[in-house]
Design a protein that fits this description.
Layout: E1 3-5, H1 24-34, H2 38-56, E2 66-69, H3 75-83, E3 89-93, H4 96-104, E4 114-118, E5 134-140, H5 154-161, E6 162-173, H6 180-192, H7 210-219, E7 223-231, H8 237-247, H9 251-258, H10 264-277, E8 288-295
Parallel strand pairs: 1-4, 2-3, 2-5, 3-4, 5-6
Antiparallel strand pairs: 6-8, 7-8
């Protein structure tokens, strides 16, 4: 397995309200437990996304090569390697800790077709991420950390990675649908402090759902755009959810906690009660994924 580092300085300046989502240290801290909860759900969405991309442009096409932007611990990368064993895959992430975890999860790192590169997905070109070097550009559950990717040039950067006729395939949490983890936190917090107002999950200009995703790809010039919404659930059980929310260091969970000025211990107790009584012991927590594929014009 090869490992590279992208030294590109072309990244767009990130607004201060969005910077917390691109803090490398926070994602490094969350890497070890990421697969236990978030990875479980993103794995399901990634499977659907791989099938959509293959249908639009088969991985068996000569000279096919894929890049996974914001790969995290490899929810999509590892599935893609099994789905298309001959396909070379470059997995990139801003967090070295995430990529270290991804590598550790490879069944046989010495024979895999997966290579890794530390890179900012807002400006991924550099090192092994060459212009027009890929038939497929993937990103799952990561693009929402970036503001207005169609307006800031992010999608234009991703298009530059693709050969003409290549495929972009993006998955993201659909917060326009019923987001169970967000609702569960809000229910618990408001029960403890009725005056609490749950802040928006994302800063302004960050995409929240399927409508923005599909429109953004079309605005960026991609054709044959197809979108789908899949209910994937966050059904990790009571213990799994509590571990994710309170102990994993996931930046979004930490952000919810910091927004509450009361007794978090009481919120934790109330959350356990809701998981038992409303969410079937954490086995029925609703969550949807928005998926989209499109083609770079030839």
């Amino acid at each position: 397995m090869a490992t590279y580092r992208n030294s590109s300085s072309d990244a767009t300046e990130v607004p201060s309200e969005s910077r917390k989502w691109s803090d490398t240290t926070k994602w490094d801290n969350a890497a070890e437990q990421y697969n236990d909860a978030v990875g479980h759900s993103s794995h399901i969405g990634a499977a659907h996304l791989i099938a959509l991309a293959d249908a639009l442009h088969p991985f068996s096409t000569p000279n096919a090569r894929a890049i996974d932007l914001g790969a995290g611990t490899g929810s999509l990368t590892h599935q893609l390697a099994v789905y298309a064993p001959a396909l070379p895959i470059l997995a990139t992430d801003i967090s070295p800790g995430m990529l270290d975890k991804l590598i550790s999860l490879c069944p046989n790192p010495t024979t895999t077709n997966i290579s890794t590169q530390v890179a900012d997905m807002a400006a991924p070109i550099g090192g092994a991420a060459t212009e027009a070097g890929f038939s497929h550009v993937f990103s799952t559950m990561a693009i929402q950390t970036l503001p207005a990717p169609d307006e800031t040039g992010t999608l234009a950067q991703w298009a530059r990675l693709l050969a003409p006729g290549g495929i972009i395939a993006i998955g993201m949490w659909d917060f326009d649908e019923n987001c169970g983890p967000h609702a569960l936190w809000a229910e618990a917090a408001v029960s403890v402090d009725p005056s609490y107002v749950n802040p928006p999950l994302l800063p302004s200009k960050h995409w929240t759902g399927c409508t923005q995703l599909g429109a953004g790809l079309k605005a960026a010039g991609f054709t044959d755009v197809k979108t789908e919404v899949h209910e994937i659930g966050f059904d990790v059980g009571k213990e799994g959810f509590m571990q994710f929310f309170w102990d994993s260091g996931n930046p979004m969970a930490v952000d919810r906690q910091s927004s509450f000025k009361g007794d978090l211990g009481k919120v934790r107790v109330e959350m356990e009660r809701l998981l038992d009584e409303v969410y079937h012991g954490g086995r029925k927590i609703p969550l949807s994924a928005a998926l989209a594929v499109g083609r770079k014009p030839k």
